[in-house]
Amino acid sequence: MRLIQTIGDWLDARLQLAATIRETAEHPVPRDTASWFYVFGSAALVVFVMQILTGILLAVVYVPSAGEAWNSLQTLNHSIAFGWYIRALHGWGSNFMVAIVLIHMVQVFLFGAFKFPRELTWIVGVFLLLMTLGMAFSGQVLRFDQDAFWGIGIGASISSRVPIVGPWTVHLLLGGPIIAGATLSRFFALHVFFIPGLLIAFVSLHLLMVLKLGINEWPMPGRIVRKSTYEKQYHELTETDGIPFVPGAIYKDIFFSGCILLALAAVAAYFGPFGPSGRPDPTIIQTAPRPDYFFLWLYAILSLLPPQMETPTLLIGPVIVILALLLLPFIFGEGEKSWRRRPIAVLTILLVAVALGTFTDLAGHAPWSPVMDAWSGDPIPPAFLQNRSALERQGAIIFQLKQCHNCHSLGNEGGKRGPALDTVALVQTEDQLIRQVIQGGGNMPAYGKNLSPAETTALVAFLKTLHPAGQLPARDASRAVVTENTPPSPPSKP
Amino acid sequence: MTLPETLSRRAMLMKLGIFFNGIIAALLAVPILGYVLSPLVRSRKAPYEGWLGLGAADQFPAGQTRLATFRNPDVAPWDGKTADSACWVRRIDAQTFQVFAINCAHLGCPVRWFPQSGLFMCPCHGGAYYEDGTRASGPPERGLFEYPYKIEEGKLFIKAGQLPTPGNPSALLNVSGKLPCA
Question: What is the pLDDT of residues A311-362, one digit of tens each?
Fold first, then answer.
């Protein structure tokens, strides 16, 4: 014990850090900030440190070469002791990090912590969020599989739409004219050196400001922030009703971080690492690339926007969102902090959460993508084929053969790109069905060139049977009248 | 007592020091910027401006659309399989072809050809194209990207090697050596 004391004294005589550390640890914080709502920032920091550690471990084996990256991931997964687990920790850590950073941001927003004098802390935080998302995307690229390969292609297609400099941006992003070795090297440098370096610097700045300006006090309804009086009030609060950060508040941070790490370790062990999916070979086109979880909402938006809206939304949308986040503390820098008196703030969060949640959920099913193998892999359910005539069954074969099933479902099987056809005969008459098949329209291709008259007749005969038993199919009322009023053709002369 | 008019040795060396550092920074900025922007400022002729062989034209039967693969003109030894690309070759008649990029005109996913329905379908966001590459439905704003082709001595050649994107649809824009403002 005495030896440790001696070594400690010897070190501190030279480093002279003990006093600073003690002062930092014991700085007074308002009593009510020792709350379970104030633990997300420290949890994000702990997960970030975990990402650095597992990232360094992965770099020991990973080969950042387009030709070998995928193989080195297979080696990590299968040949190296616990390689799969380190990959799982890093991959799930990325999801945890994005989630915790978002929750932290929502808490800070609802508690008014971005207001005076913590505007810059918020702004640095906005950049930290962008860097976290940048790490998530570049990390997906380093998992150099088919999803990653086509994912970069999507990034390139989006950046090519920037007016005038678009094509040059693409070459700069890819490091050349195509997605290849140079592309992966670039993203490796971004993911391993450039963004982490910035992240560490910005995290330090963020923490320094939390220490210097003090943690946000618990927002009380009616306690108004004014630039002229706030700092004096805050200091009175910490002096009269403050507790030292260590140990008064930190125990909740430590407990929560421990829970998060435990959850991360368990999830990584249970679900394992992400991919890699297929080999990144551009000549293998039997692939349906999907983005990682935290970009699914974007995937949904890109599928659902009307074509003419897409480029403006992609180019202007992010600028507006980032500007709004950066300007927020300047526009609403004073006033009420409590969410109880800020209904619009609460509604904004709810709206954004519901929108992102809905888009993410939709992207999980991707109803806008054709099911590429439904025509050969999903047979028509027998119920739609029973008691049908030969012509109608021939139509069912045409339905499969012409890939109608890739976009239209029957009995909930097949694509959801177009409407389900289970009861289509109720809403379209024979003539309307023929027109729709031949001319297309309403986001459906025209099949006129690829169906013979006989095939069209058979297909429409099958479609006409798609109505519930006991409900008549739609019919053109005028047809009956026409048939009634047409005089019988005169008997042919013998 | 100091005279405000005179320049002390200390102050002069300070100014000179800042000056030297500034000069070095400016000098180093040239190679550093050149290095970072190197994908844009290669001096030699861009490799994707030359013709690239897809093999004998007769391997593509008239009236059919087939997948062809080719090696990109500009490859590094560590590119692995990413040095290869694919394209859809549609032979209309003996002399007329259409060579489509596999990249969807929406966001670049690989489109698949379905000869039965005569459609190209994209697995990502649901774009669809007719057999001649024109847009049929879905989010793309235009038809499939087409590579220029020529037939010489019974062999099919295309101009490819650059990722076609909505901002560079012909994939023929000479990006090397010429900046938009230059």
Answer: 899 999 999 999 999 999 999 999 999 999 999 999 999 999 999 999 999 9
Chosen for mutation from A147, A158, A168, A365 (greatest number of chain B CBs closer than 10 Å) is: A168
Residues in A 74-133 with any Cβ partner in B closer than 8 A: none
ipTM: 0.87
Q: How far is B109 from chain A (nearest CA, A)?
A: 6
Q: Inter-chain contact A161–B166, Cβ cutoff 8 Å?
A: yes
DSSP-assigned letters across all residues of B11-23: HHHHHHHHHHHHH
Is A493 a residue whose pLDDT tops 60? Answer: no
Give the strand order in the sheet containing B119-121. B112-114, B119-121, B128-130, B135-137
In which element (H, E) is residue A173 found? helix A166-174
What pLDDT, on the 0 to 100 scale, is given for residue A184?
95
Do A213 and A118 meet the contact criterion of CB atoms below 8 Å apart?
A: yes
Q: Kindly tell me if the per-residue pLDDT of A238 is higher than 80.
A: yes
Within 8 A of B39 by CB-CB distance, chain A residues are 171-172, 174-176, 182
| Mean pLDDT, rounded, of chain A | 92
Dist. CA A246–CA A25, nearest whole Å: 5
Nearest chain B residue (CA) to A168: B175
Cα separation, B92 vs B63, whole angstroms? 5
Say if residues B14 and B7 touch (Cβ distance below 8 Å).
Answer: no
pLDDT at A220 over 50: yes
Q: What is the DSSP letter of A152?
A: H
- Token reading at B40: 């844009």
pLDDT at residue B43, as a whole number: 54
Question: In the prediction, which pLDDT does B181 show?
Answer: 39
pLDDT reading at A10 higher than 70: yes
Residue with the two structure tokens 């070469």? A65
A372/B123 CB distance under 8 A: yes
B83/A contact by beta carbon, under 8 A? yes
Q: pLDDT (tens digit, 9 = 90+) per residue, B157-169?
A: 998 888 888 887 6
Q: Which of A370, A358, A463 is nearest to A416 (CA)?
A: A370
Instruction: Please tell me the distance in Å from B140's CA to the nearest CA on chain A.
Output: 6
Chain A and chain B share a number of CB contacts under 8 A equal to: 214
Asked if B140's CB is within 8 angstroms of A307's CB, the reply is yes
Average pLDDT over every residue of A166-194: 92
CB contact under 8 A, B139 and A307: yes
A 10 A CB-CB count for A374 gives 21
The residues in A 253-312 lying below 8 A from B, measured between CB atoms, are 279-283, 285-289, 299, 302-303, 305, 307-308, 310-311
Angle between helices A83-110 and A40-59 (to 10 degrees): 150
CB < 8 Å to A311, chain B: 141, 166
